[in-house]
Write a structure and sequence with these properties.
The chain has about 200 residues and is an all-alpha fold. It is built from 7 helices and no strands.
Length: about 200
Amino acid sequence: MSNARHTPLDELEEAAQGQELFRAPGADLLIGQARDEATASGWLPPDVSGDWPSPETHQGIVNRRQDLYDAMQRLESSVAQASGQHDWAVVVGDTLNVMHDALQRHVIEIEADDGLFAEVVGRAPNLASDVATLRKDHEDLLFSCRAVSELVANWSAPAEIRRKVLALLGRLAIHRQRGAELLFDTYNVDLAAGD
């Protein structure tokens, strides 16, 4: 058995042959027929070639996720500081703005007409409801960022600010996990926890 990376197309070919990883004489005829039937039924999207995702798409995904993760860490670090410091609210507000900007860049890039969500739905239409859930997450998370920013700007009670920021960070962590699941389901690619 080779160590080559298997794609959904490989699995489809193996299933069409009724064998695991072994090629039988005349198997190309079965593979072609199975691929045509799977494409016609919508199970396999048309124009599937090469690795999913491309190296460029994968690097873009990693960069967006890392940017968001770094902003989350800075925000958590700032809100964990003692609130009695004279500039605590300013530091929390600044890191919250950085977090909001990172999230907004993430949303704009992923939800663009030619962005990741469009690619996912194009390649795996069965994941459209997962994409819709993530789009809703984006709306809710951006709204929450703005709401917490207003609390900080109006210098609400530090305990309330801290609680809201930590709740936001928890929801962002869950969103990132959902995104990782979507990527795995679409591309069979697992991202490291920090990605």
